[in-house]
Amino acid sequence: MKDAFGLPQSLLVLGGTSEIALATARRLVARRTRTVWLAGRPSPALDEAARELRAHGADVRTVAFDALDPDTHEEVLGKVFAEGDIDLVLLAFGVLGDQAHDEREPSAAVRVARTNYIGAVSAGLVAARALQTQGHGSLVVLSSVAGERARRANFIYGSSKAGLDAFAQGLGDALQGTGVHVMVVRPGFVRTRMTAGLPEAPLATTPEAVATAIELGLRRRSETVWVPGVLRLVMSALRHVPRGVFRRLPV
Amino acid sequence: MPAETASVTGWGRTAPSVARLIRPRTYEEAVAAVRECGARGGIPRGLGRAYGDAAQNAGGAVFDMTGLDRVHAIDADGGTVLCGAGVSLHRLMEVLLPLGWFVPVTPGTRYVTVGGAIGADIHGKNHHGSGSFSRHVLALELLTADGTVQTVRPGTDLFDATAGGMGLTGVILTATLQLQPVQTSLMSVDTERAADLDDLMARLTAGDDRYRYSVAWIDLLARGAATGRAVLTRGDHAPLDALPAGSRARRDPLAFRPGRLPAAPRHLPGGLLTRRSVGAFNELWYRRAPRLRRDELQSIAAFFHPLDGVPHWNRIYGRGGFVQYQFVVEYGQEDALRRIVDRIAARRCPSFLAVLKRFGDADPGWLSFPRPGWTLALDVPAALPGLGAFLDELDERVAAAGGRVYLAKDSRLRPELLAAMYPRLDDFRALRAELDPRGVFVSDLARRLSL
């Protein structure tokens, strides 16, 4: 169960090698979380993530999960929920793709969309139903400011996050009154493996800062969290910039 | 029987969860509700005054017991009452005071049910002499997980597990209580101020034996030399001859007519209770209290239940809700208490109406909270930054001093500390495993702390 401050005792991470997810898990394990499920494609990185969280004192289990294979989500997640209540589901999987390459290679672009959007729709709905049966729990969805307005430089990724973001907002509204809380997290540029080598955008942040914001959002039962918080103002301004100008902005 | 799906919280309005609220009005309906409660079980709930998640059951059933609200029999000579578990202490006072009897123990609110009073094994200002509520229970009827009803008497394991058992041994249907005789419905109250914590403890230690009821309000925002300054209010039921001759009170000495103000509005913003506003309130409260006043006549409501005058007062904390933290440390651990009060004062927690009290002998309930020692209770807005970690630190100090926190108020204890605080926890778990092997009775509190 979550405590009065929204801190979960059990955590399921979808995308178990995500750096943001692991920073969040470390933070939560330091507080109340004792049971962690890391769902992801079996890999040495997944095992290493589990080892590290165990060293922090959590009971960690890994489970084979592939965002690109929605037909299996029901079964895989069903098994996790059958083992006991999950207080927090952190939907953290996603790929950035390579915009220039993906524009030339539509099948690669589709892979981005299938992972970030279709995979999340499937896993999100399966997790939401299980949480609803419990009558409690939070679903935290890692969206991105990139989904707020499509940019020339990464509109394939951005459009997949836009779809995910809209889906998660609607899901949150649908789950009003069921005891399930859906929180959409919109980080800006986060310094991780995924963004390594890319030119850093203004207001760049870290996985640890996102984790801090998630913990605060859980306590406040927030529905939307921007990281850093000032991005909420920046993006609401950028949303109204005329297309011709926006196109030429160096962001 | 009426049932609805509802979001349920405790009085502190934190950590809501959704359950089917079922309101049985007869024993047969209660039995049916327990038999049919489904895979996620059920938990009885009274008037929802437990601060945390004790009377919540996410995804399962919550039995609203306020439908069992009959007072079945009163022995006006022997001073006992047999009533349904859903009867409130307010109702009991209305019925019993005209007959010259009072409830044996009342907490800071009259709006608790008899079932809840036993389940949380509540205490009042008379704990140092009279013990907890369950000490005055002569018998109770308990609906257990197998759907049968059994009479449970003090001195049995099942009674000791049920008293303070947070509803997890079964649903209390009725209880027979031993009452306290009174001549009037007024209280004779002595008020005095204490300049700091040491002064307060000395006054409480020296004088408590002279009073049936004793409590101190403590200003946790005062710092420096004034740390722990307090207002003590102690007294007893006023005898008839204490009432002025010819007065209205004298003509109708057992009248009970508590007034109520309008309820607190529903959607107050959070952040009204800041260090500044609470500090000003505390200053005023301390200054307006007399340095010393003896034999003042006060109503039962004013002496025991000042907050009941404002219905839904818990809304003043806004949607973020609040946490009540109550712990006890044994006599001899005064240094630990001092350090904790210093830490709270240094942290500047905006806490108004914190209370300090001395407990008497421990009660028989396995999970009953009181034990001989000092108990401090404080309310803090849940949105206060860093509060979770701060209370964790206090837990460690309390546990290190051999103390414990009160489950009826808890909404955030680290589960690992529970066994140290409650040495009979294993007995409680073993009894539950035998009595309720399928885990029919379960609450959010029980899940959170693995009770």
Topology of helices and strands:
The complex is a heterodimer of chains A (251) and B (451).
Chain A: E1 10-14, H1 19-31, E2 35-40, H2 44-55, E3 59-64, H3 73-82, E4 88-91, H4 99-104, H5 106-134, E5 137-142, H6 155-174, E6 180-187, H7 207-220, E7 224-227, H8 231-238, H9 243-248
Parallel strand pairs in A: 1-2, 1-4, 2-3, 4-5, 5-6, 6-7
Chain B: E1 3-8, E2 17-22, H1 27-35, E3 42-45, E4 61-64, E5 71-75, E6 80-84, H2 89-96, E7 101-102, H3 114-119, H4 127-130, E8 137-143, E9 149-152, H5 157-162, E10 171-178, E11 180-181, E12 186-194, H6 197-207, E13 213-218, E14 230-237, H7 248-251, H8 275-288, E15 292-299, H9 300-304, E16 322-330, H10 334-347, E17 354-359, E18 373-381, H11 387-400, E19 404-405, H12 418-421, H13 425-435, H14 444-449
What can you tell me about this protein's structure?
The complex is a heterodimer of chains A (251) and B (451). Chain A is α/β, with parallel strands linked by helices and 251 residues long. Chain A has one domain: 3-Layer(aba) Sandwich (Rossmann fold), CATH 3.40.50. Chain A contains 9 helices and 7 strands. The longest helix of chain A has 29 residues, at 106-134. Chain B starts with a strand and ends with a helix. Chain B is globular. Chain B has helices at residues 27-35, 89-96, 114-119, 127-130, 157-162, 197-207, 248-251, 275-288, 300-304, 334-347, 387-400, 418-421, 425-435, 444-449; strands at 3-8, 17-22, 42-45, 61-64, 71-75, 80-84, 101-102, 137-143, 149-152, 171-178, 180-181, 186-194, 213-218, 230-237, 292-299, 322-330, 354-359, 373-381, 404-405. Chain B has 2 domains: 68-182, Uridine Diphospho-n-acetylenolpyruvylglucosamine Reductase, domain 3 (2-Layer Sandwich); 186-417, Vanillyl-alcohol Oxidase, Chain A, domain 3 (3-Layer(aba) Sandwich). Chain B contains 14 helices and 19 strands. Chain B has 451 residues and is α+β, with helices and mostly antiparallel strands. Chain B has an 8-stranded antiparallel beta sheet with strand order 15-12-14-13-17-18-16-19. In chain B, strands 5-6-10-8-9 form a 5-stranded antiparallel beta sheet. Chain B has a 4-stranded mixed beta sheet with strand order 1-2-4-3, with helices on one face. At the A-B interface, loops of A face strand 2, helix 11 and helix 14 of B.
